[in-house]
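C-alpha cells please, single chain.
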Amino acid sequence: MTDNTPPQPVDLGGRVTYDVPVARVARATLTRPEKGNLQDVHLLYQLDAAYRRAAADDSISVFVLAAEGDDFSIGHDVETLFSTDGMDQVTLEGGLGLGGVEGDMAWENEIFLQLHWRWRNFPKPTIAAVQGRVFAGGMMIMWPADLIVASEDARFADPVTAFGIGAVELFMHPWEFGARRAKELLFTGETLTAQEAAGLGMVSRVVPRADLESTTLALAERIAARPTAGLKMAKKAVNQTLEIQGQWNAVQAAFNLHTLGHAHSRIVHDGAYLDPAGFPLVADIWELPEDWEQQEEDT
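Here you go.
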C-alpha cells in the first residue's frame, strides 16, 4: 500500500522549516512564534534557502509562505540590525563590514533590498498565508508573494515614521495601498484590517483563522494543476508591467532615502540608528509592556 503521508518538515536552521504539504506545493514556515516571528539575519537567510530549494526542485509548482503562532511577523529584530552573525552573502554587494553609512547601506542592501527583490522575482507562483500582526518587516516578506490569503484577525502597519524613517526598506506602498492611502498610513502609523486590505487589493482572500491553512493549500493546489510555462509567463507579464511603470526604480530611490534616515539619526541621536522617541508612539500596536522604558534602562 502506498503511504501518502507528507514527509516531515525540514528544519533549515531553527527559524524556518520547509515541507511539501501537498503535491507540487512547497511551504516555508517561520518558526519563531515566541518572538512574534521577529526577523533576524538567521531567519531571513533561512527563508532565502527555502526559496532556493523550491526553485531548484522541478516537481514544485507553487511556493507558500506561512508562520507559526499568533502573528505572522511583527517586524525586524532591531537588537540584531547590522549584525553579520549568521550571514550567508548571496549578492555581490560587498562592503558589509565597513563602518559608517557605507557599511550600513551595504548591509541593508543585501539583507532587505536584494534578498526581498529576488523573492519577488521568484519564477513560480507564491502565496503568503498571514495572521495576526503583520507589521513593518512582516509586510516586507509578505509583499514579494503573488497572492496573499489573510485571516480575519490580520492587521497591517508600517509605523516607522515614528523612528524618523520614511518607510521600511522595501517600498511597495504606492502599489499595494494606492498613493494617498499609502501617505495616510505612513503619516499616522495606523493599522489596516484584513478586510480593508482586501478592499485595496493587497489581500486576495480573507478567511477565518481556522481556515487559513486549508484555504491557502486549496488555492495552491488549484494553481499547481496548471502548466508551469503558462504560470511563469503570466507572472513575468505582470511583474514586467510594474517595472515598466517604474516600480524597481522607485523601490531603489526610496531605499536610498531610508538609508538617509538612519544616517540622520546617527548624527542627532548619539549614534542610534533610530529615533528613540518613536517607541512611545508605537507601544500600543507592538503591545510593549507599560514599564518597557524602565526595562530598557535596566538592560
